[in-house]
Amino acid sequence: MSKFETLTLNCQDGYQLSACFYEASASKQQPYPILICPATGITKQFYHRFSCWLQAQGYAVLVFDFRGIGQSLYGPLKQSTASIVQWGQQDIPAAIDALLDKTKAERLILLGHSAGGQLLGLVPNHAKVAKVIAISGSTGHIKGLKGRTKLLAPLMFDVIFPLSRFTLGYGPTRAIGMGENLPKDVAREWAQFCSKPGYVINAIGKTVTRQQDYHVQIECPITAIWSTDDEIATEANVKDLLRLYPNAATKAIELNPSTLGHKAIGHMSMFKSSHENLWPIIEKEIAA
User: Fold this and answer.
1) Is a pLDDT exceeding 80 seen at residue 2?
2) What's this model's pTM, rounded to 2 decimal places?
3) What DSSP letter does each residue of 63-105 carry, written as one string?
């Protein structure tokens, strides 16, 4: 049975994050530990089975809840001041340092799911990342969406989020099946970032200074893995993400559900045990 350790991560601004650390299997020791950065509104528990599988392959793994989400939320959600920018500038850096301190490794592999793979350009200690694997990684630009999500997004971003900010004090994403309810500023930034190409690049010069923009400094390889039935990480939006890193070696890997024995993969299913046959595909890129 897999074992993990519960940790508390200390961010530079004093905020504390809840995390789980999976020590590498003693019989197999991979050179790089893996930091799993969750999608918007998704808790660390969602990645437990995948983390256990990576652990069995010889990887040390750390997965955490972003501030304002899951066990990294303290007090009423409507009082949370968490933001996506803070996730990139504070939370991911703290998780990087904690995992490297725990394993005594010099660098790690960042495996980000959706938003978790979109924020490296805001991370000040990005040089400690040896490689990025962005699962369902894209900018989520609203014009690049497709299917039901293309119809739902304008309603969520332009109507539900602005109204709920003042009536509820948070973004009610749970009711529409999109993860945990969101702190109001996370919901606001999500809508703003997806309204134009480039996602978090839209914060540069506004809530993020030019000096805090590290996109052009990043040189580690970045691989986006996406599914053809993903309504958010579409081909156009995957390309929109990878173009933000002009000095990194980037590539995209397209998965077709039918050829892999699935009716659907979408934006969320790559981490589900029902789709465990996809995990070796991910691990192959980790080990490459």
Assistant:
1) no
2) 0.97
3) EEPPTTSGGG--S-GGG----HHHIIIIIHHHHHHHHHHHH--
